[in-house]
């Protein structure tokens, strides 16, 4: 028994030494690489495989690498965690973002972090064919990040709001017959229309979604040009065209002002 | 190449897991998590499939040779296998089990192929909240009734603790962070790895430490490949087919899955042939493999894990960006199962056949004699794993505190099966969302 205890003690000491070593080496690595590679940039991917955030981040990664940057790719996969990392970053960091995230993440677009508005799209309101003749209260699926008060004020009070985790879950919900309507992004709404189970219309009252790229600890002017050039690449243009995504044509100052104006809508509580 | 890496690592992990008593598929998944973090969805599925299949093969080896179940489904193999061993026929027992296991796997694939087109046609039924609602009720009832010798009170407490641990942070239905007590790191919830290590691995290590197994091999006669095949074809094929079908159906039962497959098939065969250890052994071991394939289908088709190890897989799949069964992807997913998973499943079975038959005793010799080293490696590895993942997640202190707290609790409750707790911890948010929506709709 004593031998087992001694073995356990030795194992614990070895673990503790290795843990300290890991922590120290992590910090040393960060410090030294900052000094040696000034062109290093961290790119945070908060998107899931198959989603637009992920696809766009991948294209930026390729573009930045081609432009000579040493890209540190951080696959976070969860927007809230990605925003935390972004806020705490001490070296040049960028990530794709959208104005409809600001309400929850408390990270608003400013002159210091705004790089470009990549595209904009309206939110769509979809309705099932079977609910067209339905009278009374309608059930409406919405993303959990949407402000319920804003939705009720815009869609009317004669509805029951049913929150879903994300746009994909909403799509499955309406296809499974859970709800009569859904408020969803353009991509999922197009997929729903393709199923033939209902129709969707672009909403002119719900806030427009603007997909942006933001950064911290960066030379905004310099990186804006690099990112803009990447979005002018054929691969990017094809991506936007295939998804019917509208590119803004105004100056970055106007794009920022437009994005900030929209963000006010998300502050309604 | 990526698929080959996933399958070969899964097979290697499966070989060790099956042979080391006490280590299950779930433990292997956690130990391999630093590797699995870099896998994509298909690689994760292939790794799990290879691991789980291999465990069914190699779990039989210590059961027959040493009378120690390599994994929880191997009890019938212990009872019937030792009868062969005493008659110096262990090699025959291992051989017929291996052949039966391959047959069971192939039968499961064939049945699935026949059923899948029907499932695909009615897929939207599985998207509905109501379907998920009733399935979750079913799973919770099973959690309460199956584990810890059907002690409902204990299972209820474990479920409640698991659910409470899932509550802090983001929920699936509200944008707000809850029960974070001002700790910013809790906004992203209690981390999964310390929970798994504390409540699963630590009790497993403690059990492995206290368990003693004899490494005494009885002499046995060398029986050739052709003789085994001939014996199997003439005497055991019907038992094997019966086992495959019973195992397949039982594989769908949440919580118990392959354990039920093995035992139901064994009991059924015992009614037909009570004094034929060959038929009994083959029937239960065939059911094992058939049930293993069937148990993966609810996860692949509707995204609901039904076994303990599948919950860990589910959590990793979601982290890798998996979204189960998008409606415009139904055909692709069916295609993926048969074009990308099934061929590797067959390969895994062939490798399993080789490992669990001609190489059985050699492998057992290597691993059975290095138990104490494996325990130390496992303990140190888990501590390092927790720290490494904590650093990657920028929450190393939360990971460390959680590991310490959960390990202490895990040791205190080591005599209980903690699977209900893990189930509710991983699925808690989804269950809450499904139940909440069911009230609104």
Q: How would you portray this structure in words?
A:
The complex is a heterodimer of chains A (269) and B (441). With 269 residues, chain A is α/β, with parallel strands linked by helices. Chain A folds into 2 domains: 139 residues, D-Maltodextrin-Binding Protein, domain 2; 79 residues, Periplasmic binding protein-like II (D-Maltodextrin-Binding Protein, domain 2, 3-Layer(aba) Sandwich), CATH 3.40.190. In chain A, helix 6 packs parallel to helix 7. The termini of chain A are far apart. In chain B, a hairpin with a 6-residue loop joins strand 1 and strand 2. The longest helix of chain B is centred in the first third of the chain and has 32 residues. Chain B starts with a helix and ends with a helix. Helix content of chain B is 75%, strand content 1%. Chain B is built from 20 helices and 2 strands. Chain B has 441 residues and is an all-alpha fold. Classes of the chains: A alpha/beta (269), B mainly alpha (441). Chains A and B meet through helix 1, helix 3, strand 7, helix 6 and helix 7 of A and helix 8, helix 9, helix 18 and helix 20 of B.
